Amino acid sequence: MNEAIDNLRAMLLIRAFEDCLAARKDHGFQLLSSGEEAVSVGLASALNEHDQLLTGGRSIGPALARGVKPERLMAELLARTGGVNRGRAGRGHFSDIDAGFFGAHAVVAGNITIAAGVALGRKLENHPGIVAILFGDGASAAGALYETLNIAALWKLPLLFVCNNNQLSVSTAREASNAAENISDIGGVFGMWTKSVDGLDLPAVSETARTAADYVRAGNGPAFIEFSSIRLRSHSTTARETRKRDELAALRLKCPIEREIRRLQDAGLLGQAQTEALRDEATQRAETAMQFADASPYPDPSEVLEHVV
Amino acid sequence: MSSEPAQQETKPLRLFFREAVARAVREEMARDPKVLLMGQDVGSFGGSYREFDGVYGEFGPDRVRDTPVAEPASVGIAAGVAAAGFRPLTVITYMDFLMLGFDALINYAAKLRYKSAGKLTAPMVVKTTAGAQGQGVAHSQCIEAWLISVPGLAVVAPSTPADAYGLMKSALRHDGPVVYMDHKKLFPTPGNLDREEHVVPFGKAAIRQEGTDVTLTCHSYMVRVALQAAEALAEEGISVEVIDLRSLAPLDIDTLVASVEKTGKLLTLEEGQVTCGVGVEVATRIFEAVGYRPWKRLGALPAPVSSNPVLEAECIPDAEQVIESIRVLVRG
Amino acid sequence: MFYQLTVPAAVPGVEEIRILEWHGEPGEAFESGDLIVELETHKAVVEVRAGQAGVLREIKAEEGDWAEIGVVLAMFADSADEAAPDGTAGDLTVEFEVT
């Protein structure tokens, strides 16, 4: 029960946080994840304090779900020294390993090879944690993924491949970018445990992620899961929307957050007043994060040559 | 198990290049359990050039890993395991293939310290082999000049077994990514090493021959070409100071500047392209310090390096060209 | 007659080899085709075999020693007891195989 409310709280935070960020004129170049909150939160619910998560450039939702502090993240995204990396990494490249977020690397599929290296380190150390790598359907067409699947399987790395299939690679439809029937089928070729599930269904995401993480944690080698989600915003804050208004309106009806609220309310686990309170709380936390970021200074220009070598 | 034959203590320690590399790798793997070795054919096969003879037997399959033909993943996994606290040495058979690993090396490893504000680093070594030896347009290139422009990346290029040993040791202790490049034509060459364990620090050039008339900078196999030319020029009464850069990033500016202040003239020599080449950087950095001096640059012609022996030889600088360039520089 | 065995230019680019193993001692007779010595390059082993019959009279380089192309490694003679000549000897006919 509490876990269900916590997960809803986490999804609402991601939505409110990104809305708050997007409302800023100086928000910079961002890749947002509205419509994909259940993937981030469901996956994070299957990871523990020993685990590390790596992502591509669509990193904000996963990082918040993993427990990166909203204040520090907002400051990072707005280039302030209060950010998790003093504001010098930004959305595409921030990391917070103490929170179990090993980092974003915004070169599509390049990040997957890095994650396998972190997983190799875990294996060599007999570390109790596993590594999860979250990537989009766009990355499912890239060579680095296939090389890494092969080596991860050969070496039995404790690596969980997670594809957040939001159906679009910028403007290219998933059907036009990958010939496999299900993206998770790719993992099957290498003998992995695989599953494709509805990424808008939070309980299904959580359960699948947990099963897969347990499989990897047990030393069976890598697993590959695919969550089909939706993208409610354009690719990035600077990319034009390629879909029609009615198409987007239909997608909004599938919102994973509203779906989870309905499910909890229907089951009698959540009341209307509590729902509104949770929404307000999320908005409040996002605004607090924004206040923290605004109060944090930009770096001094002289910092440009620090930490290079 | 040792890859080196027993040698009498009274004689100098003389080793092939590959044995010097193996000695450095084995010592560092014994010294630091975080050092790993990975790449194509590095396991029981002992490396394409036998440069890891005995390493697999001594350190086992966890720390010595054969990788499939997958350069992007090999470099990426090395970068990731380095970020996670290890010190991988990953082997890319030919420098041309390193292009496949640029994302992880340049976009991730070289920037990790910066982007994490010093919290994370990627102490990794990419060992690769450059140079023309009849293998054609995609197995012959020297692309070190591309790499020295990457902030956060160190690049070293030994010309002797002693420096191969000493630079490899430094590379495996460096707290960031390093590209260590060998040259195929140097492998047949043995050389003497100190018996005592030692390192060759980054950023230290070696004056291979002192001279007063002209400074000749070079690295890797071109050091041998330079010394050959310098010997011939000495007979004409031209005194050449031959400087082996050894470390291309960082450069040993002090040694370069002191030499050109003394000789007043500069020839830069490299096997790669001269356009945006190592020589351009060397000359610019020197002239920024001492003002402009007469300078010529020698390198590959602006053409691919063919496996055709006639075309290959025409493309790559040789001692005759060095001699001619220096004559012009010195005598006008 | 006396003959000298020198380091052959067996592998392109190789200027110097290391003596890996002798397959005989002074006084030992060799038939054509017998293995005399193995030489080590950076990546290969060069098996040097007698191209003519003879007696190994003197070994001039020990196992582990380095020698450049053309350096004399050993002296051979037609017989075990003939006296060494004052001048230089001719080259021993050899065959070699690179493995």
Task: Describe what this molecule looks like in 3D.
The complex is a heterotrimer of chains A (309), B (332) and C (99). Chain A is 45% helix and 12% strand. Chain A is α/β, with parallel strands linked by helices and 309 residues long. In chain A, the strands form two sheets. A six-stranded parallel β-sheet of chain A has the order 2-1-3-4-8-7, with helices on both faces. In chain A, helix 6 links the parallel strand 3 and strand 4. The longest helix of chain A has 24 residues. The termini of chain A are far apart. Chain B is globular, with a radius of gyration of 20 Å. In chain B, strand 10, helix 7 and strand 11 form a beta-alpha-beta unit. Chain B has 332 residues and is α/β, with parallel strands linked by helices. Chain B has two domains: 181 residues, Rossmann fold (3-Layer(aba) Sandwich), CATH 3.40.50; 126 residues, 3-Layer(aba) Sandwich (Rossmann fold). Chain C is mainly beta and 99 residues long. Chain C has one domain: Beta Barrel (OB fold (Dihydrolipoamide Acetyltransferase, E2P)), CATH 2.40.50. Chain C starts with a strand and ends with a strand. Chains in contact: A-B, B-C. At the B-C interface, loops of B face strand 2 of C.
What would a concise description of this structure say?
The complex is a heterotrimer of chains A (309), B (332) and C (99). With 309 residues, chain A is an alpha/beta fold.
Work out the count of structural domains of chain B. 2
- Largest sheet strand order of chain C: 3-6-8-1-9
Q: Helix and strand string of chain C, N-terminal first?
A: EEEEEEEEEE
Separation of the first and last Cα atoms of chain C: 31 Å
Structural class of chain C: mainly beta
How many strands in all of chain B?
14
